[in-house]
Design goal:
alpha+beta, Immunoglobulin-like, 2 domains, 24% strand, rod-shaped
Length: 299
């Protein structure tokens, strides 16, 4: 073979080999580049996902803090929570403008989020402690209120019982006039059956025994009412107090009462014309009406 042709053939073969090698190399590097690009895309996707997760954690913590600030009534804790909430909002705003490829800053923000969460846990523990204390105090208040109510009801019951007993004692201590009778008598104090000879009306009565009544000097008031309901009285000044009113009396007499029964007598000296008919005699002692009787005055 011609040496020239032989050299050309050698050159062609070498060139073909080089081209083939270069082609293989190009395909190899292109493949590698595609793999790197794919890996980078996956890394970016993971970074985006990681940023989204951190952003979600910030948002959740922000919402959680909103819930706590609306449910507590301690001004100091509310202020501290509001400060942390402001910090979380600022970090969240920064996170949203930070590129997902800025892994260093995102990691720093996540670390700051962790710090805020730890502070939040301390505040939550304080809130829970305060809530427990408040609940305990509320239960104690309810119990105290129940005991106070029960004590008040007991005092009220005792007061009513005492009032009832006082009423019983008061009623029991009221003196009583019994064995009443009226006799018309003449000027000599003798009983008479003649209307024209009657000078006085003699009232016989007994003050019954009563050991619960207050002993001492008593004034007995006798009030005589005519058939026409006029009261027999010797003057306009002859009055005494009964049920917060000043009423007229006919005769009064002072006695010394010891609690034992007393048989006594009172007189009404006739100085006017008395109509015949049914009269009423009422006795009063210590502001109480202690006896009421009817009698007939006629021939």
């Amino acid at each position: 073979m011609d040496p020239i042709k032989k050299n050309n053939l050698t050159i062609i073969i070498v060139a073909a080999a080089v081209i083939a090698a270069l082609t293989i190399a190009v395909f190899y590097f292109v493949h590698k580049a595609n793999e790197k690009e794919k890996e980078m895309a996956e890394v970016v996707q993971m970074m985006n996902f990681d940023k989204e997760q951190v952003e979600k954690e910030f948002t959740d913590l922000n919402s959680e803090m909103d819930g706590y600030t609306t449910n507590i009534h301690n001004d100091s804790l509310v202020k501290l929570l509001q400060d942390q909430k402001t910090k979380v909002s600022q970090l969240l705003d920064e996170l949203r403008v930070t590129k997902s490829t800025n892994a260093v800053r995102i990691a720093q923000l996540r670390a700051e989020l962790s710090t805020v969460r730890k502070v939040m846990i301390q505040y939550v523990n304080q809130i829970d402690s305060l809530n427990s204390m408040n609940k305990s105090l509320k239960n104690e208040n309810v119990e105290v209120h129940k005991k106070y109510q029960a004590a008040s009801e007991s005092v009220e019951a005792l007061s009513k019982e005492k009032e009832s007993l006082n009423q019983v004692v008061t009623r029991a201590s009221i003196m009583e006039v019994t064995n009443f009778s009226m006799l018309p008598v003449n000027n000599k104090g003798k009983k008479t059956g003649w209307f024209s000879q009657t000078a006085s009306l003699q009232f016989n009565y007994t003050i019954a025994k009563n050991i619960t009544a207050q002993p001492g000097e008593k004034t007995v008031y006798l009030r005589i009412t005519r058939p026409d309901d006029d009261v027999l009285t010797k003057g306009s000044g002859n009055v005494f107090t009964y049920e917060n009113k000043e009423i007229a009396y006919s005769v009064s007499k002072k006695i010394e009462y010891t609690g034992d029964a007393i048989n006594d007598v009172m007189f009404w000296k006739i100085g006017e014309i008395l109509p015949k008919g049914s009269y009423r005699a009422e006795f009063f002692i210590d502001g109480n009406r202690v006896g009421s009787f009817k009698f007939v005055f006629e021939k």
